């Protein structure tokens, strides 16, 4: 069974600093996908970034990058130059490539950006 | 606007009451999912469907039933609500080819069972 672990329940960062949110995963599948979602206080789930298990380069989307270390089974999210609007809950998730493509989520990390 | 619509957005139930949550998508997606979100536990899969007329159990199916009579709709039912079912419920959909840009989520239903 697939499992996602986020070990940081909460993080506090100064505005404009870079921040790394940790995510480790466990799967016996060779092919899988990893996602990061942002959930602001309004509650909606916002897609941030995706990394496929066979992608050789780390994914980047604007200020977001995914530090993918396959051998260590980690998929950390890096946010550069943090902004007040980055304060939110962040979820790491894994998709099974076969079958119903179910998403398995981690417990989440609450990020607070201080001015 | 295209997307996933959940109704209702908020609901308070008394223990033992029943209700149905509706998820509707207009993107012709094959796959649909119901998740519940509880503090400190992330989102957990309740039931899912891989097409019209199909449903399957997820990680936490007890106390819930689902139906997908039409491709665009995925209904989640609580036959006899319990306080443990107080949660935020999210519906999501995805196409059969999968998307590298994430799944489409509804805005959530906040359910309180008293």
Total beta-strand segments of chain A: 12
Question: How would a crystallographer describe the biggest sheet of chain B?
Answer: 7 strands, mixed
Structural class of chain A: mainly beta
Shape of chain B: globular
Q: Which structural category fits the helices and strands of chain B?
A: mainly beta
Total number of helices of chain A: 0
Gross morphology of chain A: globular
The radius of gyration of chain A is 14 Å
Average pLDDT metric of chain A: 94
What is the straight-line distance between the termini of chain B? 35 Å
List SSEs of chain A in N-to-C order. EEEEEEEEEEEE
Please report the total strand number of chain B as a whole number.
11
Question: What attributes characterize this protein structure?
Answer:
heterodimer; A: 115 residues; mainly beta; 12 strands; B: 114 residues; seven-stranded mixed beta sheet; 11 strands; 48% strand; globular
Could you please describe the fold and organization of this structure?
- The complex is a heterodimer of chains A (115) and B (114).
- Chain A has no helices and 12 strands.
- Chain A has strands spanning 3-5, 10-14, 19-21, 24-26, 32-39, 46-52, 60-61, 64-69, 74-79, 88-96, 103-105, 109-114.
- In chain A, the strands form 3 sheets. In chain A, strands 2, 5, 6, 10, 11 and 12 form a 6-stranded mixed beta sheet that branches.
- Chain A is globular and about 45 Å long.
- In chain B, strands 2, 4, 5, 6, 9, 10 and 11 form a 7-stranded mixed beta sheet that branches. A 4-stranded antiparallel beta sheet of chain B has the order 1-3-8-7, with no helix packed on it.
- In chain B, a hairpin with a 5-residue loop joins strand 4 and strand 5.
- The model of chain B has no long low-confidence stretch (mean pLDDT 93).
- The A-B interface holds A 4, 6, 9, 33, 35, 37, 43-45, 47, 50, 52, 91, 93, 95, 97, 99-108 and B 31, 33, 35, 40-45, 48, 50, 56, 58, 88, 90, 92, 94, 98, 100-103, 105, 107-108, 110.
